[in-house]
Amino acid sequence: MRKYMKNYQEWYNHIAGKIENKPFLLRLLRTFNRFMTVVMPIVYLTLLVTTYFQEGFGKQVLIYVFISATGFVILSLLRKKINAPRPYEEWDIKPLLDRDSPGQSMPSRHVFSASIISMACLHASLSVGVILLILSVFLGLVRVLGGVHYPKDVLVGYICGLVWGVIFFLF
Asked: Where do the Phosphatidic acid phosphatase type 2/haloperoxidase domain residues begin and end (predicted)?
């Protein structure tokens, strides 16, 4: 890992320094991260409630819950098995976001969750789903710039969410 990212510490400290020197950018980074972790579950619950009122407690509500939940559990088990260290554990960097627990960096569960919720919404509404998928990309960027994930962690989390989310369209 260090060979591939031999200048990671230098790169991160350079980027983090630019963000830290602009209080607006630092607040924006932290606010967006918090916003996404609060809003995405609300969006998901809204999707479930809306689907329930449109179709009743039927197959579609169960599909949205089952596919999302199984994906989350499988991804959580996978990341526990991989147990990849976080950037701040391997490098002498100070993350801009509050530090998460150690290890289990890969794949990003925040980004996976955002992308799987986005895919469920995409199934229900193309425009809402596309907007949420774009916001999920920004969440990945924020998690990298915040120093709590490597780029590959968020990319794998995003791709896993997209791939698992395709299952919504098969039912």
From this structure: 61-169
For the stretch 117-150, pLDDT in tens is 999 999 999 999 999 999 999 999 999 999 999 9
State how far the alpha carbon of 34 is from the alpha carbons of 8, 29, 48, 60, 163, in Å.
25, 9, 22, 29, 25
Could you tell me the two tokens for 100?
């998460």
Give the integer Cα–Cα distance in Å for 74 and 141.
23
- Comparing CA positions, the residue from 155, 23, 16, 151 lying closest to residue 93 is 16
For the chain, domain boundaries: 8-170
In angstroms, the CA 27 to CA 8 distance is 23
User: Is 4's pLDDT higher than 60?
Assistant: no
Q: Which residues contact 10 (CB under 8 A, 6 or more apart)?
A: none
Distance CA 148, CA 9 (A): 13
In single-letter form, the type of residue at position 76 comes to S
What are the helix (H) ranges across 56-125?
A: 59-82, 87-90, 109-124
Tens-place pLDDT, residues 9-39: 999 999 999 999 999 999 999 999 999 999 9
Q: What is the pLDDT of residue 7?
A: 86
